[in-house]
Design a protein that fits this description.
By secondary structure, this protein is an all-alpha fold. The protein is built from 13 helices and no strands.
């Protein structure tokens, strides 16, 4: 007898104890109710969804779509710079405006590509009206191409077959999204870029003891406005760019992710271009253009991965 005789009874006793024990942890697990994805989203789930979103982007050919978006984006940027430079050139204080625009562009574009954009502003040449109008038309048309490319990828992310909108309605929605997205981003750029003038005014009209705190709050405030505007604009695109309009809570996770990845990609790519990459060896005088094109490609990938992330958090069956 001994241990051999007592072992089954001991195991049974322990088993009965475990079965009958009012374990609060077991009770809490059994009574756990599913919570809202935005309220209880463990970090592990976030990482898992992000990895799945990247993989789904591969499966849905989003990286090829991003190439089309980047191509249309670069066709948008240069005419837009020309139009903006022409508007700035009409001002009486062109030098001050150019300095502020240089600061704003330097915060948005990656390092190594800013000089390419500023070349449009560092000239006193007055451009004819028909050139400005033509550049505006090219910029708007190319921007609509960016939207159309993204919209096709968004439909694949949500498993929407075909194009329920049809050709003309899709183009109309793409043209509508351009001012809806452009005006808030232009406002945020002005806040970030031309905020130096407000900062100087605050420095002059604030007592010395509070000057540091006020300037710190203003700097944090204008960058917060820029970040929140970016999230809002990307969420707006996700909200309107597919036939089945998404509620705001369904597009916010991807918009936040895309904004974080956008800032990270810009900083990382700028550091890479400054310290390692030497596009001039291969592309010569086109090096800055190629670097800008690669950055626009990364931005398109970021936006499409954000859409895939939304489709995972709120899949089609919940729509």
């Amino acid at each position: 007898m001994g241990l051999t005789h007592l072992l089954p009874q001991t195991v049974l006793t322990i088993g009965d104890t475990i079965t009958r024990s009012p374990d609060p942890v077991n009770r809490s697990l059994n009574s756990h109710q599913p919570c809202h994805p935005l309220l209880c989203f463990p970090m592990l789930h976030l990482v898992t969804h992000f990895r799945r979103a990247v993989w789904r982007a591969f499966e849905h050919d989003a990286f090829a779509t991003a190439k089309a978006g980047a191509y249309s984006s670069i066709l948008t940027l240069f005419p837009a710079f020309l139009v903006l430079a022409s508007i700035v050139g009409m001002s009486q204080d062109t030098v001050a405006f150019t300095r502020e625009i240089a600061y704003a562009i330097g915060r948005v574009l990656p390092a190594g590509t800013t000089a390419l954009a500023l070349a449009y502003f560092n000239t006193s040449k007055i451009r004819p009206v028909h050139v400005i109008l033509s550049a505006s038309l090219v910029a708007v048309t190319a921007a609509s191409g960016v939207m159309v490319s993204w919209m096709s990828a968004f439909r694949r992310a949500y498993g929407i077959q075909g194009n329920p909108w049809g050709f003309w309605k899709e183009r109309a929605m793409a043209f509508l999204l351009i001012p809806i997205a452009a005006f808030p981003m232009a406002f945020a750029t002005l806040i970030v870029g031309f905020g130096n003038q407000v900062q100087n005014w605050l420095a002059l009209h604030t007592i010395y003891e509070l000057r540091g705190a006020v300037l710190l709050l203003w700097t944090a405030g204008r960058w917060t406005i820029g970040i929140l505007t970016s999230i809002a604009v990307i969420a707006l695109i996700y909200h309107l760019a597919i036939p089945r309009t998404q509620s705001w809570r369904r597009v916010l996770p991807g918009a936040v992710l895309a904004t974080v990845m956008w800032f990270g990609a810009t900083l990382g790519f700028g550091w890479y271009v400054t310290n390692y990459a030497n596009y001039a060896v291969i592309y010569g005088s086109l090096a800055a253009v190629i670097a800008l094109l690669v950055w626009l490609y990364l931005v398109s990938i970021v936006v499409l991965i954000g859409a895939e992330f939304n489709a995972l958090v709120f899949p089609k069956r919940e729509m």
